[in-house]
Trehalose 6-phosphate phosphatase (Linum tenue), 364 residues
Amino acid sequence: MTNQNVVVPDTKSGISLPMVRLSGSSIFPATAQKPPTAPGTGENLEINGGGGAAKINSWVDSMRASSPTHMKSSSQSLSQHQQQITLPSALDNFDQIMEASRGKQIVMFLDYDGTLSPIVDDPDRAFMSKKMRTTVRRLATCFPTAIVSGRCRDKVYKFVRLAELYYAGSHGMDIKGPEKGSKYTKGTEPVICQPASEFLPMIDEVFKELVAKTKLTPGAKVENNKFCVSVHFRCVEEKKWSEVAEAVKSVLNKYPKLRLSQGRKVLEIRPTIKWDKGKALEFLLESLGFANCTDVFPIYIGDDRTDEDAFKVLKEREQGFGILVSKVAKDTNASYSLQEPTQVMDFLQRLVDWKKLAFQESRM
Ligand SMILES: O=P(O)(O)OC[C@H]1O[C@H](O[C@H]2O[C@H](CO)[C@@H](O)[C@H](O)[C@H]2O)[C@H](O)[C@@H](O)[C@@H]1O
């Protein structure tokens, strides 16, 4: 990424988001300057600061609790304390959602794995179907649309292959708008934001160390997501999970500026900056000119713990809705649910049909 790529987003409302490059590499909104470091949200597991074996056990327990074979008993015991609610279906309540969006600009945010593509064993083969791609392409002709993923931006782009979208990779730490600008923003240059640039060499180092430490554990896979690293457990025998968690802990103990979060059978190592999918959503809304607007209706669809940061932002802003993709009840800040990617596709297609009908009616 070069200096030439740093753009001041030209917003519809006239509110611009001045960007500054710090230390020759980081880019932050000038008002916010450098994001403060944070211990992480409730979703994030604290790594540095001790805990030893107890900490490892708690990660492994948490991984077990979220795996299908343990899901039933875990959700039963959790529900006694946490009031997990089965969310209403976004498909069954489609008209209600559309009614709430009346007179507002819908903006779409879509997670990738488990939302647009089904969860598979090999992260390199998590392809989305042609039908899903066509649907997302149609969606983007109707509403500004962003993909928000834990994967590195280039990789998620290779899966989605739609140049007209916004992409926020590395859990929102690498944001880029459409190459030729967008019909939704005034500028012709793409929006760009990389608040964790200074962590690149450290992440690279950690990636190499984790590859070396886990290479003898069959099934373990370490993925370099540019501003974060994923350590996959999905294909590791359950009795070896502690071994992998131990390797992660031993590496992370050396890096107090990194923290850990957890996804679906994956441990994710990321910078301690206060930036997540929720911040990415806010940044994108601001770039699109909706920073202080009441007439915007963001819809965020995601399946993972890291998507909760975005659901929470929507709840706090009292704007739009979060939709959780899950077959089971979970403790969540989302308002509606869809069971799996095929239902996500149906929901997106209904949005497209609804928009077309609304357009036709407005011309009558
Ligand atoms: O934010 P997302 O787009 O949902 O990305 C989160 C992680 O997704 C990928 O891992 C998950 O999907 C894999 C493929 O289906 C699956 O094998 C793995 O168990 C899941 O955790 C991706 O590989 C990670 O890098 C992302 O962070």
Remarks:
- Residues 111-114, 119-121, 123, 126, 149-151, 223, 225, 230, 232, 234, 263-266, 268, 304, 306 surround L263DTV3 (CB under 6 Å).
- Residues 1-50, 71-83 have pLDDT under 50 and may be disordered.
- The two ends are 48 Å apart (CA to CA).
- The CA atoms of residues 10 and 187 lie 5 Å apart.
